[in-house]
Design goal:
Number of helices: 12
Shape: globular
Helix content: 40-55%
CATH topology of one domain: TIM Barrel
Strand content: 5-15%
CATH class of one domain: Alpha Beta
Structural class: alpha/beta
Number of strands: 8
Strand order of the largest sheet: 1-2-3-4-5-6-7-8
Mean pLDDT: 93
């Protein structure tokens, strides 16, 4: 049984949802990024979603773009990212770790070679943000060969073909985005297609639904969990705390821990 299966089974039995923070590896520095990842887990994160910094993060808004630039500016690389991931995996053998990637970085390494590195580092899943389901065969093949869960995005305007494809090809979890556009901290709750999309994904047997894009408060997390998703992802709000406390490491980690605790509390 995969780490994701174990996690969702356990949380379901406890009548809880999953809280999954997202950060950019190496932001702002390698060593502080490691402390941030440890703080996220120790403060209650059920799983991690992370990205390897890439110069053109098309799906990401200004907050995460800033994190990418900080990490790259401080020398973070693909190889260092895998080293960091392995260090976190060794510390936390049971926590699911997912990568959100862009295709260029994977192609640069060679698709099969990249997924082999993921497996060696203890990565559980890979979501390729700029590769749609219909063009994902080569990535899915490599993922399967190395026992990595392929994660697929379900957009607000998904078609019946997309729902069925996610159920057939996806593993680990389904990334349901709450709105069109790029990542960022949102103030309003998205409801237009939410209930229909959740119902359709469940009807076709898609992997557990995790809601993302714009979730920045316990109230928002609870709203989406109350609508039937299995978990929520928050990235820009986490990265904002990092940016606002770059000059005070202890305050950064303390505020980050408090935010994670509040978000996790909303899932219970």
């Amino acid at each position: 049984m995969s780490r994701y299966q174990q996690l969702f089974n356990r949380l379901s039995a406890q009548n809880e949802g999953a809280f999954v923070p997202f950060v950019v590896l190496g932001d702002p520095t390698y060593e502080l990024s490691k402390q941030i990842l440890i703080t996220l887990i120790e403060s209650g994160a059920d799983a991690l979603e992370v990205s390897i910094p890439f110069s053109d993060p098309l799906a990401d808004g200004p907050e995460i773009q800033g994190a990418v630039l900080r990490a790259i500016g401080n020398g973070m690389s693909v190889e260092k990212s895998f080293t960091l991931l392995k260090e976190i995996r060794d510390l936390y053998p049971e926590v699911p770790i997912g990568l959100l990637m862009y295709a260029n970085l994977i192609h640069a390494a060679g698709i099969d070679q990249f997924y082999a590195k993921c497996a060696k580092a203890g990565v559980d899943s890979v979501l390729v943000a700029d590769v749609p389901l219909r063009e994902s065969a080569d990535f899915k093949k490599a993922a399967t060969a190395h026992n990595i869960a392929p994660i697929f995005i379900c957009p607000p305007d998904a078609t019946d073909e997309t729902f069925s494809g996610i159920a057939k090809e996806g593993e680990g979890y389904t990334y349901l985005v709450s709105r069109a556009g790029v990542t960022g901290v949102a103030q309003r709750l998205e409801n237009d297609s939410l209930e229909d999309n959740i119902a359709k994904l469940k009807a076709v047997g898609a992997p557990p639904i995790v809601q993302g894009f714009g979730i920045s408060s316990p109230e928002q997390a609870k709203h989406y969990l109350d609508h039937g998703v299995a978990g929520v992802i928050s990235g820009s709000a986490v990265t904002q705390i990092i940016r606002e406390n770059l000059t005070d490491e202890s305050a950064l980690l303390e505020k980050l821990g408090a935010f994670i605790q509040s978000m996790k509390a909303a899932t219970k």
